[in-house]
Structure formats: C-alpha cells, structure tokens
Amino acid sequence: MFYKPEDGHGLPHNPFNAIVTPRPIGWISTRGTDGQDNIAPYSFFNAVAYVPPQVMFASTSAKDDRDGTKDSVANIRDTGFFCVNIVEYAMRDVMNQTSGPWDKDVDEFELAGIERAECETIPCARVANAPASLECKLTQLIKLPGETNYAVFGEVTGVHMRDDCLVDGMFDVTRFNPLTRLGYRDYAVIRDLFSLKRPGE
C-alpha cells in the first residue's frame, strides 16, 4: 500500500504512529508563573545531542484554556524551564492518568498521587521516584506546520538517576523497564537487551 498523507490513508485509524515505533515517553513536568505544577506525557520525545546534552519533545494538540497549545508548552513559553521524567513500566497507570485534558488549574501530581521533589538547577518539580529525570532550560520553541504543532528543545542542566538503576557504573534499564509508546492505544515495555559492536571496534 502507498498513500499520500494529504490524500488520506483510507484505513480505520491513522497508521503513522504505528510506523514510527517504539517511541520513548517524555513525562514533562513544568511550573507556571503562578506556581501551579503540571505534568503530562509526550511520545514525540528524544535526546538530540551529547555536548551539551539536549532533548526535544513535540506537542500536537491544544486546550481551550491555553491559547492554541497545551499546559506544558504554555508554561515553558512563560518560564523557560521543564523537566523530563523517565517512565517505568510500574508507573504506566499513573502516567496515563496525567494524560487527560485536565484544566490548567489541576495539579496532576496531586490528581495521580505522584510524589514530587524540587529540581536542583531549575524552578520546577520532578517525579521523586522516577528512574531518571532531566532538568532542562529552554533553548528553542519552534512552531511547526499545522495548527497546534510545537517542538520544544532544551539543554539538560541537571540529571537525576535513581540509585537502584545504577549497576557497575552503568544506568541499567532492566532495573526499571522503560515504557514506550506504539501506535493507536498500544504500549511496549523494554525487558530484553542485546549489544552490537560498531565496525572497527
């Protein structure tokens, strides 16, 4: 099958998200200028550079109370800071609870019963027991084609790693099993690893 997105795919559901998989989930926590904390998951997320370390995520929908975007992007636009919390399999239901279209005045940490801690380098809350959290300062906020599409780029200014996830000096994902996003309503969990050496190594 071949289709042009501009012409439609003719399938019951859009296959695009199912093609680009698995995708890591960035559980983005922010704080508004009013001090209100927010946290929401984004599956258009990844690391993009080593030196300095940088990450990005994209937001593709909007809420009526946020001027063409969602709480996360609106807060970052106002403050210039955000934190990426890594989602483990054990927190799948809690993460999912924070994905709802809650009012901007709703504190998703309280709503989902998430223990929070203060970040070290930015004025923002993080998930206290996440396997890892990346404190970030905004470097670029880019309006993408499409009515509500934004890409957010940030430089990592602080890194938290849970002690039980460090094994022999390495961050071991098998200790917490990262949750990943597939297409439709599907997710996957990472449990099995293998290594490959690059040519010449």
Automatic annotation (TrEMBL):
Query: What InterPro entries does the annotation carry?
Result: Flavin_Rdtase-like_dom, Split_barrel_FMN-bd
Identify the domain of life: Bacteria
- Pfam families, A to Z: Flavin_Reduct
GO MF entries:
FMN binding; oxidoreductase activity, acting on the CH-NH group of donors, NAD or NADP as acceptor
Any signal peptide, and if so, which residues? Answer: none
What residue stretches are annotated with the Flavin reductase like domain?
18-173
What is the name listed in the Swiss-Prot or TrEMBL entry for this protein? Flavin reductase
* Species name: Roseovarius indicus
User: Source organism lineage?
Assistant: Bacteria, Pseudomonadati, Pseudomonadota, Alphaproteobacteria, Rhodobacterales
